[in-house]
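User: quick one, sequence for these tokens?
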């Protein structure tokens, strides 16, 4: 999917919501556990309920890989279902890959050729040659970890070098030589608040994938205030706050209501900048 196509979806749907499919077999409604492929069935109902309100889905691979072959099959079925019935939705594999070049090339083949994912989260720690294999596919995106929302993000991401440049700033600055804003996005956690201003000074035109709104306490308005650009430039992810809005038989209806509420907030934010 091109940037223009993604922005077109954001504009037409009045939404920049990404629904995180962090589907935990221990948290899904118990009545699904007697069904064949309960993970896929849960995802299918969540997707059908929330598709009108979002532009992207982000399955987190850890929740599928922990179940072995059954989990991988559920992930594959979920991707195939999205491709068949919701082909205009952007699909992100949240896998946080990153290794030496030939290994990264295999990861890239897995997600971009075998699964036909639109974008993959990638860790930058091993440098340029670990990231560039993911950039060899037309229409596919790398989403580089930059400034995350977890409690331990300050352990390394704010370390300063001799010139006072922090590690997350070095990642943002140097990685721009690897790909432009039509191929590269960055993960910036919603809980970072006003630091979005610092991020935008370095990358004024790139899309940001923003986790941490909802269950992790990030503010959508604050993210938009400091991070939104002329064509939006944001994909804001919500996982638990949507997919686990209810653990009853009405879980999909509750998810739809939670997604719709976020979409309405997003529509107002878009209106405020003239989109």
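Assistant:
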């Amino acid at each position: 999917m091109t940037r223009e196509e993604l922005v077109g979806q954001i504009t037409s749907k009045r939404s920049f919501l990404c629904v995180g499919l962090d589907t935990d077999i221990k948290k899904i409604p118990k009545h699904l556990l007697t069904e064949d492929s309960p993970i896929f069935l849960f995802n299918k109902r969540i997707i059908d309920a929330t598709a009108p309100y979002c532009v992207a889905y982000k399955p987190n691979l850890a929740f599928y890989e922990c179940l072995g072959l059954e989990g991988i099959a559920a992930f594959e079925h979920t991707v195939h279902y999205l491709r068949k019935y919701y082909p205009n939705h952007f699909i992100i594999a949240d896998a946080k890959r990153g290794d030496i070049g030939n290994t990264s090339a295999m990861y890239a083949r897995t997600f971009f050729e075998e699964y036909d994912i639109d974008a993959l989260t990638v860790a930058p720690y091993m440098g340029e040659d670990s990231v560039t294999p993911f950039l060899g596919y037309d229409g596919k995106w790398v989403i580089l970890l930059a400034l995350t929302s977890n409690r331990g993000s300050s352990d390394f991401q704010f370390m300063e070098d001799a010139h006072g440049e922090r590690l997350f700033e070095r990642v943002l600055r140097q990685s721009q030589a690897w790909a432009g804003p039509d191929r590269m996005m960055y993960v910036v956690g919603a809980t970072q608040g006003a630091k979005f201003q610092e991020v935008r000074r370095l990358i004024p035109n790139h899309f940001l994938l923003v986790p941490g709104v909802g269950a992790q306490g990030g503010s959508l308005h604050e993210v938009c205030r400091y991070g939104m650009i002329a064509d939006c430039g944001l994909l804001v992810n919500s996982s638990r706050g949507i997919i686990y809005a209810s653990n009853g038989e009405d879980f999909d209806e509750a998810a739809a209501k939670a997604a719709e509420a976020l979409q309405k907030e997003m529509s107002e934010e878009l209106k405020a900048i003239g989109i």
